[in-house]
TrEMBL record:
Gene: parB
Protein name: Chromosome-partitioning protein ParB
SMART domains found in the cross-reference section: ParB
UniProt signal peptide: none
Transmembrane segments: none
GO molecular function: DNA binding
Cellular compartments annotated: Cytoplasm, Nucleoid
Length: 285
């Protein structure tokens, strides 16, 4: 069952009470024009219908929960949490918004924004995966640390990140909800991007289920093997399955490249922390 609300994620990033502040942080009214969105916003698309509904509710009932901001200049603030509320207040014609001011640095602000968006559970799968990657690349967190922040398992984070290996056209279909995460995982079983895009279009056009897509992948791999020249070694379904198991276990992109007398395994890593995680996995050091 998915966790609701912000949970322990934000508490793991920053104390609930700022240093020197009372237990209940003071809520102040700030002019909307003095607040700017955060550059760490994970959500790429805002549902305008949802914003209009929220604006209508705010007109009738007011803002039920303050936004969180941080000072970035003289009487200027940057949003940390609550951009939907800020947008809805502007659309509702309000001049001010209730806010809690937190004096936090770039790192903490960015982590809070990304984790808050992830735990709201309304990001599409691609936005969510991009948010995880930003936490790893920009804030130098390991997959285990990201998992702890957002209350997910490390394997969940690893599988989410794998979706970013898909070509842009397939990621776009995932972001639009035309493909499910299950479809995305199946498409990763096809070794070439062109084949992934071709099957993705077929899934959308024919309304294929995940099980249907799995059968189609098996068919494509079989057909691809039969077209190879006689005597040429092929990466068969079994080898592709081993690759997939390694990706799942290591939480990163893995390629098996067979040769005449053996072959090689290529393992990708995404920063020093990720390399150290892999070294610890293999050598326990």
């Amino acid at each position: 069952m998915k966790s609701k609300g912000l949970g322990r994620g934000l508490k793991a990033l920053i104390p609930t009470t700022p240093e020197g502040a009372a237990e209940d942080a003071e809520i102040v009214e700030l002019p909307l024009e003095r607040i700017t969105p955060s550059r760490y916003q994970a959500r790429q698309d805002f549902d305008e219908d949802s914003i209009r509904e929220l604006a209508s509710s705010i007109k009738e009932h007011g803002v039920m929960q303050p936004v969180v901001v941080r000072p970035v200049g003289e009487d200027l603030y940057e949003l940390v949490v609550g951009e939907r509320r800020w947008r809805a207040c502007r659309q509702a014609g309000l001049e001010t918004i209730p806010a809690v001011i937190r004096r936090v640095d770039d790192r903490t602000s960015g982590e809070m924004m990304l984790v808050e968006n992830i735990q709201r559970e309304d990001l599409n799968p691609v936005e969510e995966a991009l948010a995880y990657r930003r936490l790893i690349e920009e804030f130098h967190l390991t997959q285990e640390e990201v998992a702890s922040r957002v209350g997910k398992s490390r394997s969940f984070i690893a599988n989410s990140l794998r979706l970013l290996q898909l070509p842009e056209g397939v990621r776009s279909l995932l972001g639009q909800g035309k493909l499910s995460v299950g479809h995305g995982k199946v498409l990763l079983g096809i070794p070439d991007p062109a084949g992934q895009e071709m099957l993705a279009r077929e899934i959308v056009e024919k309304g294929l289920t995940v099980r249907d897509a799995e059968k189609a992948v098996q068919r494509l791999l079989k057909e691809g093997g039969s077209r190879q020249k006689a005597g040429e070694k092929k990466k068969d379904v079994e080898l592709a399955a081993v690759e997939d198991r390694l990706r799942e276990r290591l939480g990163t992109k893995v390629r098996i490249r067979p040769g005449r007398r053996g072959g090689r395994i290529e393992i990708e890593y995404y920063g020093r922390d990720d390399l150290e995680r892999l070294l610890e996995f293999f050598f326990g050091c």
